[in-house]
Amino acid sequence: QVQLVESGGGLVQAGGSLRLSCAASGLTFNRYAMGWFRQAPGKEREFLSAISWNSVNTNYAGSVKGRFTISRDNAKNTVYLQMNSLKPEDTAVYYCAAGDSIEIFNKYWGQGTQVTVSS
Question: In terms of Cα–Cα distance, which of 77, 114, 119, 75 is closest to 98?
Fold first, then answer.
């Protein structure tokens, strides 16, 4: 069974950093682009970042560009999101997803991990 499991979330003060991980199993990991999304209470799910299967191409939402960095390790079937200079408005549940390309995520989703940034 395909499974994506996020980890690394938690409580952090404004200005701090967190590194999220998403471990995949049950799929051929290097055949998929991977992405990160988040959803804050009362808001729509928001795209954050994506990375191609071979890490050649990446994309970032304007709200996180310059603060967040996406990467992947195909040998470990894991995608990461390094988050720096965190702000209270970054508070949300963070999800990883697998898709057909860097712009299309229509295959698999994780359960999410909570990130809370205090002021």
Answer: 77
Give phi and psi for 21, each to the nearest 5.
-125, 150
The total number of residues written for the chain in this structure: 119
- Exposed (0-12), middle (13-18) or buried (19+): which is 52, by Cβ within 10 Å? middle
Helix (H) or strand (E) holding 106: none
| pLDDT tens digits along 28-74 | 999 999 999 999 999 999 999 999 999 999 999 999 999 999 999 99
Contacts of 14 (CB under 8 A, 6+ apart): 86, 87, 88, 117, 118, 119
Distance CA 78, CA 73 (A): 5
d(CA 79, CA 74): 8
